[in-house]
């Protein structure tokens, strides 16, 4: 059974940093496409960042140069380092894994950026 557990969210002031983690079980992240998405209240879920099995990365324009996605194969986790956080980054952040054309989602971790 595949399980994705996100952690690391919380309340942070504008300009601050957080590091989110997506811990996978029942699937290996090293050979999966792993993405972070976010969803704010009343808004559609939107793509944030992605990493492929060959370490290609892609970012939404809104987070480029502020967020960094990385993978720890030994821990079977994918992290999202978020720097320079803005109030508009406030959302539930979810991990998505695609493997063999199957899609898995975690439950999410809340990020709130506010002074």
Explained architecture:
The chain has 115 residues and is an all-beta fold. Helices cover 0% and strands 54% of the residues. The chain is built from no helices and eleven strands. Strands 2, 4, 5, 6, 9, 10 and 11 form a seven-stranded mixed beta sheet that branches. A four-stranded antiparallel beta sheet has the order 1-3-8-7, with no helix packed on it. Strand 5 (46-51) and strand 6 (57-59) form a beta hairpin. It is globular, with a radius of gyration of 13 Å. 32% of the residues are buried.
Secondary structure elements and pairings:
Layout: E1 3-7, E2 10-12, E3 18-25, E4 33-39, E5 46-51, E6 57-59, E7 67-72, E8 77-82, E9 91-99, E10 102-105, E11 109-113
Parallel strand pairs: 2-11
Antiparallel strand pairs: 1-3, 3-8, 4-5, 4-9, 5-6, 7-8, 9-10, 9-11
Calculate Rg over CA atoms: 13 Å
The number of distinct helices, counting runs of at least 4 residues, comes to 0
Number of strands: 11
Q: So what's the overall shape?
A: globular
Structural class by secondary-structure content: mainly beta
The N- and C-terminal alpha carbons lie at a distance of 40 Å
Percent of residues in helices comes to: under 10%
The averaged pLDDT comes out at 96
